[in-house]
Amino acid sequence: NKPWTIPGLAAAKQAGQKLAMLTAYDTGFARAFDANGVDLILVGDSLGMVVQGHASTLPVTVDDIVYHTANVARGLSRALLVADLPFQADATSQRALDAATRLLQAGAQMVKLEGAGPHKLEAVRFLVEREIPVCAHLGLTPQSVLRFGGYKVQGREEVAARQLREDAQAVAAAGAQLLVLECVPSPLAAAITGAVSIPTIGIGAGPDCDGQVLVLHDFLGLDSGHRRPRFVKDFLAEGGSVAGAVRAYVAAVHDGSFPDAEHSYA
Ligand code: KIV
Ligand code: NA
């Protein structure tokens, strides 16, 4: 039950140990997750939707993520804390460094950024060279919602699948040490997971990723006001209490029983 470290992530993948991640935005849930075996906590810019009530993550600011990161950090003693760089905080490498520095000073141990375009890869290298661990995020990157025209499964066509495989290699080569894959078909996520040495964390990416993440509100079965995506599972219904839900989720991720085919895209 030692605290997680950045080098521990790659070691877990080597050992075939699955990683259970949840999003959190405040101390109370952070404490409940930490005490019940969650390995990684994400202060996601999903807070724009589930906490602030916006229709996308685009309105979220660095100040918002810093505030929630500081609150979550005070609830943790074992889980590793990742915080999102919100929309355009990674538009230039210098902006990314300024935002990431604030997030680490608020208690994050790693920052996450979406995409693998040229300036994103440059930002990953820029941060890693400056001692800021980076988690990449590919597939359905919600900050790209306007270009995508909605929240849709990514990488279904062969050309897009090849691009995603190349992007995964590129972010790893740039120095990212963790990779979130969101809403990609299970076989593609499995292929990427086999091809990179850094752990992959899936959300709607099938059972073969090295770990899984869910958004807190989805995990508790709260109605988002939108159609519930296929990968969402209400663990509160199964676990009976918040602590029970967390234990059920962690056990199911660790033993590979979540997600099953019903909660994945073929
Ligand atoms: O913001 C968020 O919660 C995320 C996860 C869904 C991966 O980026
Ligand atoms: Na996010």
TrEMBL record:
Pfam families named among the record's database cross-references: Pantoate_transf
Active site feature: E182
Enzyme Commission number(s) from the entry: 2.1.2.11
Gene3D superfamilies in UniProt: Phosphoenolpyruvate-binding domains
Keywords recorded for this protein, A-Z: Cytoplasm, Magnesium, Metal-binding, Methyltransferase, Pantothenate biosynthesis, Transferase
Cofactor(s) demanded: Mg(2+)
Transmembrane segments: none
Annotated binding of 3-methyl-2-oxobutanoate, by residue: D45, S46, D84, K112
Residues annotated as binding Mg(2+): D45, D84, E114
Pathway: Cofactor biosynthesis; (R)-pantothenate biosynthesis; (R)-pantoate from 3-methyl-2-oxobutanoate: step 1/2
InterPro entries: Pantoate_hydroxy_MeTrfase, Pyrv/PenolPyrv_kinase-like_dom, Pyrv_kinase-like_dom_sf
UniProt superkingdom: Bacteria
Sequence similarity: Belongs to the PanB family.
Subunit structure: Homodecamer; pentamer of dimers.
Name of the protein described by the UniProt record: 3-methyl-2-oxobutanoate hydroxymethyltransferase
Source organism of this protein record: Luteimonas cucumeris
Gene name of the record: panB
